Amino acid sequence: MKYIPIGSKQIAFVQYDDQSSQMHIQYHTGQTRVCSGVNEEQVQQLLQSDNPYDLMVRLTRVPHTAQQA
Hints:
Layout: E1 2-5, E2 11-17, E3 22-27, E4 32-36, H1 40-48, H2 52-59, E5 65-68
Antiparallel strand pairs: 1-2, 2-3, 3-4, 4-5
Helix pairs in contact: 1-2
């Protein structure tokens, strides 16, 4: 699993599992959200983004499946 720092007041960090194409979003509140169908290209965009939080918001919208854990 890849660890991706976000630098957000809301999101503590993100982990990406390339085996399952899932992104695990860990919030500072302790809540975890799992998004399915995220590909490696999208993860690279996130890593290179000047504003990773805004990109996270776009990635967690439909058609990706987001579940709260």
